[in-house]
Amino acid sequence: MTGNFDEQRPGAYLGTTQMHAHQPEADALVLFGATGDLAKRKLFPSLYALERHGTLRVPVIGVARSTWTDEDFRMHARDSINTHVDGADATVVDSLEARLDLIQGNYADEATWTCLRDALDRCGSTTAVFYMAIPPSMFPMVAKKLASVGLNTRGRIVVEKPFGRDLASAIELNKTLHAVFPEDHIFRIDHYLGKEAVEDLLVFRFANTMIEPVWNRHYVRSVQVTMSESIGIEGRGNFYEGVGAIRDVLQNHLLQVVALLAMEPPAGPDPGFLQDEKAKVINAMRPIDAGSLVRGQYVGYRDEKGVPENSEVETFAAARLEIDSWRWAGVPWYVRVGKGLAESATEAVVELRSPPRMLFDGAGSPPPERNLIRLRLGKNDGVTFALQAKTPGPDLDSQEVDVDVDFAAALGERQDAYERLLGDALIGSLRRFARQDVVEGTWRVVQPALDEPGPIFPYFRNSWGPSEASSILVNNKDAWYLPSPAR
Ligand code: BG6
Q1: Is 253 annotated as catalytic?
Q2: I need a surface site. Which of 105, 150, 152, 338 has the fewest CB within 10 A?
């Protein structure tokens, strides 16, 4: 990418469209943090899937501080796959194991890095993928160490969220990484961008002529995006206390989804054009202030291990976003995220305006409900159009009928997000990764909510969060839509 960062406008880039759609395919994969939790839960199962589909063609070199042998490492990979993949095929696991080697050493030691360079030399690698499955606090050090042995010019890095913990630290982190890697060699993973259903938003909006004409302030009354999880923090108290729902999922997953829903059509297929449109719409968002935010905490959170008894960290957040663009000015966008809620779902509900004249309520029956377009982005992904149809009988009454598609049933097996993202990093495609200016823009949007978060309201588990969440709805007769019932 050739954009120049504009210091006066954090988050703004000038002339950013040129991202190389494809870079050379990688010839090695280096996994930092190879014995850690992310590798165990996500990366080995994804490597297995790539191997099974014949798309893994490179050696995989793990780097870790554990005092493990190559054999221990291979056993660990095998265990991870057997735990996370139903009916794993033993011959595929064998082929994957044959690719695995471990470099064991301390990240601070010079010897670890020369050893890694020697290993890459031995397999003739010139374009490696360096996957940072390590805590973000280690990204700067590892990037610098790669540069110290000249490996920064022999590959690209993959970093996992969080990309900073506020706007200032995100800018700082990006500066540090840019001192070592150019922007188009930094692949930032937000795993929501790897989900087929999230990517489908682009197809839904721009491949269906019937959608785009109504996708604006003239026809849309409001948009609600919910990401609810029924699980709590699952023993991750220490981690969650330093994060909270706004940093954990709202700033990244949720705002990426909103950007895809709200942006203008990209100028062309180059991934840079897509990122440009996301950056534009995020720049048009007003920052979330205390008046448009409600935070909640589930009852029992303070009893979790690693959580202090006076914790004010939110496990729920609801916010009203305003997008000052020609398309969306005046349309409230509501977002809601939370743990310990009644159901797990990720769903965007686009509520259309009522027809200009009601022809059907002469008989005293209630007016028709508004049309809804529900986009299910989590489990059971698909789309439902809530339409009005005539109620059988002599009167001209209407009732809601759902026109519904379940994507898995209609289209078949969905690929796992991590498999796709790992595959993309290996072939060098940036399309599904997050660009720096977009990430910084999302921090700018949430920054006031981090600086002055306001009160925190308790809610019971298995509910839909604190009742105060309704206070941010512009029209006090409105309510939050419940996600589609589980099927
Ligand atoms: C992660 C968050 O990024 O996303 C977790 O750190 C959250 O707290 C998870 O549970 C949700 O991802 P998914 O794919 O299960 O919706």
Answers
A1: yes
A2: 150
